[in-house]
């Protein structure tokens, strides 16, 4: 699907670039017609990617008239053709839904008075009948399994002076932090020394201000103890090597560095998570799946801690906690049913899985996230 690569902002038609620049740089106003002031920069970047895909499709299909206003190009026939071409190209239903919502939201930003509600309505209808190609349950792995894979990646990078092994070490550290703290991908992306990532006398802490969080509430946690040594190695050896791959070789203070020496984007971090989990487990996990996995595991294993879920995942409402709590009962019932079937059949039970080294140290991601050690 490389042909579906979107156009970057600098290649948009002039009228689109000007409209986008106006809504993203204008002074804040207490007006409904300035909805972009409620959006974070990461959200605006995601919108720009979605809109770039639309503009690229218009160009490929011969429908791009640079002189037209953005909303005038988004007529019903064009949007239906866009929808149909994505379907023909093999895009999943939910991917199409996301692209349509992104197109709608950008048009609402740059042309608040435009009549583009039909795009959102169409996306909602598609979502109502959308089918996932694989279930969430098929994709989700336990935090412990991801944590073990992350440590294997770091442990296998024996020659960090080699760029490819340095990348393995970086990806292992990224996965381990993701599995241990279930941070949103935008917050992982923004981690920078002296801003969100703070150090004092060898103690590392991560702090996000309210305006950096989706729920608008300050969020902070200690860097996992088991990852302090890998973080130190990454800062001292891996990160400088990756920075040196860039042309400018300047230090922009961001934690995650690409192979080209640049700060990694949310898209790049997402690709790392998906590609590494696909290679290890057969199906990719997206950045949100670990949050689902951790919350469900808390609800199943320690339901008395279910009300900790909003705090540990920085949720702004308790409805999500209740949803995961409601999953716990059926999950336990399914386990008991499987055990009973196995007993009736007289099958030989598998030997218990030994606790791994991380669990023995009390570094199980579930328990460190809850702020306690497993007894």
Tell me what the structure shows.
The protein is mainly α. The chain contains 17 helices and three strands. The chain has a three-stranded antiparallel sheet with strand order 1-2-3, with no helix packed on it. The longest helix is centred in the last third of the chain and has 27 residues. It is globular. The chain starts with 13 loop residues before the first helix and ends in a 6-residue tail after the last helix.
- Name the structural class: mainly alpha
Low-pLDDT runs of 5+ residues are 29-37, 314-318, 324-338, 348-362, 366-375
The percent range for helix content is 55-70%
How would a textbook summarize the main sheet? Answer: 3 strands, antiparallel
Continuous helix count: 17
Mean pLDDT: 75
Order of helices and strands: HHHHHHHHHHEEEHHHHHHH
Multimerization state: single chain
> What best-fitting shape do the alpha-carbon axes yield?
globular
Number of strands: 3
Question: Strand order within the widest sheet?
Answer: 1-2-3
Distance between the termini: 49 Å
As a whole number of angstroms, the C-alpha radius of gyration is 23 Å
Amount of beta strand: under 5%
